[in-house]
Amino acid sequence: xxxxxxxxxxxxxxxxxxxxxxxxxxxxxxxxxxxxxxxxxxxxxxxxxxxxxxxxxxxxxxxxxxxxxxxxxxxxxxxxxxxxxxxxxxxxxxxxxxxxxxxxxxxxxxxxxxxxxxxxxxxxxxxxxxxxxxxxxxxxxxxxxxxxxxxxxxxxxxxxxxxxxxxxxxxxxxxxxxxxxxxxxxxxxxxxxxxxxxxxxxxxxxxxxxxxxxxxxxxxxxxxxxx
Length: 227
Prior knowledge:
Number of helices: 7
Mean pLDDT: 93
Order of helices and strands: HHHHHHH
CATH superfamily: Phosphate transport system protein phou homolog 2, domain 2
Number of strands: 0
């Protein structure tokens, strides 16, 4: 009955999150290893699958609501899964943005050693994985941990941007590559933000606490960051 439908819905959610996680991993590996094939897979194969997954999950949620008219916790869970599905699709979009920027970078000499981006990617992927686990297991402690890690991702991005601004000011020849690298860092940071949003909802669902992870009000859109 509804229990089986909810179990199937959560299974779809986990498969969707695994797809998005692999998209981010492929993009990072494609950039670091200069493997254009991985980057093209994200754009040509994985993005359509992510879009289809979101549509499929929305349909599953609507069908469960129509068939069983769930209330209380079941209804809240379904509505949250619909929101998470949208968040995952947006993460997939950010992974595609990453792939486009990476394609530009792999054909050119690196601006600086690959230290910050691999670290950011590692943290971001783990945050995504833990955010879905926290939801499935209703683990508020794990959700809080994800929220705390978001500030680390922000700090790495901000430090990287300061360094790149210095490079661009001293050597105009690095401007295009630096801007592409900023696109990579900004899209990773946005994926981390979306994972944090999921965990804020998990904390509210489990403990009834409204937790808002405040960002700098001046924080710009990724497109605004890069001109």
